[in-house]
Amino acid sequence: MTEVPAGNFLAFTRTHEWGVAIHAKQILPNGVTVEVWDSGVIVFTPLNDTSLDLVLSCAVHGDETAPIEIVDELIEAIRTGELVPTCRVMFLIANPAAMNIGERFVEENMNRLFSGAHSRGEGLINRERERAKQLEIYMDRFFNSSRAASEPRERIHYDMHTAIRDSAHEKFAVYPFQDGRPYSKRQLQLLKQMDVPVILLNDGPTTTFSYFSVNRFRAHGFTVELGKVRPFGQNDMTRFAKTKNQLKRLITQGAEVDGSFVAGDYHVYQVLRSINRTQADFSLNFPDDVANFTSFAKGDVLARDGDIVYQAEQEGESIIFPNAKVALGQRALLTVTAIPADTLNLV
Ligand SMILES: O=C(O)CCC(=O)N[C@@H](CCC(=O)O)C(=O)O
Ligand SMILES: [Zn+2]
């Protein structure tokens, strides 16, 4: 077993941008075990832990820097003993090569490569696919380690992102498709404590990282959008104070919720339509500065895909994640509608 690399873990990760063959282990003076399984993959195991297994991932998209800064701070705070985890926690810095060039991805959008999508499509091999496959292996190793498998444990995965556009709700979470299983009040409360009281319910299986956690491991997995894409150094980190405090609390105290669930505390949206780009000639019918969650009137033209014209089908239909530059066949736009939280199937 090699030594855990000294110095800042994010810097080590950036130096080995497509991964490194390593299995390093170290025990901190406070008894916490640190293991490095790869560049960007670090696992902390306390001596005595709560029954929580927590995964915090960032940089699935390399230019979404605020979550990377948060993860960097948390990792170093644990390594110096400033934060003492009481749960098993794995941090993943998913796409360091894209981070190094300040781009969403190098060759292919990594957040469309999970649940085995990395290995589908004849002849399609690239390093993002290889990395996504490796990340799946690390998730499996983490959630199915002998310790994790020995007792019932709560699994939480926050895959942290930032959005390309401004947003009427600065922070929001995508609750992946649950295939008929109920949504969790406790998880909504934990998200709200993290300053994320806005939830977008996805309506079907996807190839995102968070859906992979939900579907493969029955984890409480979420894509968590924390504001807007900005280069390193340009994030106003004061806007993430509540989010960081809650993550620190999760790490040091476990998944405690304050008080009881109040449906009116949440803004919930459900997906109406996922509009894919199928033609080179694809355009959005609104400017780049139109924010996520902007609503349209019934009949407004939202997008054109070759000869197909997409119009708002309902009054107040709102747009999320519009991106006309996605690869052919991929999602270029979601439309959503608000629903009351107390209409959800909640446990
Ligand atoms: O702002 C945008 O257009 C994209 C922000 C982003 O990366 N969002 C994720 C959402 C994943 C999900 O639906 O769970 C993505 O598009 O991969
Ligand atoms: Zn993203």
Give a verbal description of the structure.
The structure is a single chain. The protein is α/β, with parallel strands linked by helices and 347 residues long. The protein folds into 2 domains: 9-261, 3-Layer(aba) Sandwich (Aminopeptidase); 276-343, OB fold (Dihydrolipoamide Acetyltransferase, E2P), CATH 2.40.50. The chain has helices at residues 9-15, 65-79, 96-101, 127-143, 146-149, 185-193, 209-217, 241-253, and strands at 24-27, 33-38, 41-45, 52-58, 88-93, 154-163, 171-175, 198-201, 220-228, 267-276, 282-284, 295-296, 301-305, 308-311, 317-320, 331-339. Strands 1-2-3-5-4-6-9-7-8-10-16-15-12 form a 13-stranded mixed beta sheet, with helices on both faces. A 3-stranded antiparallel beta sheet has the order 11-13-14, with no helix packed on it. The protein binds ligand LFNQLBSZ and zinc ion (ZN). The ligand O=C(O)CCC(=O)N[C@@H](CCC(=O)O)C(=O)O is lined by residues 61, 111, 161, 163-165, 174, 208, 210, 223, 321, 323.
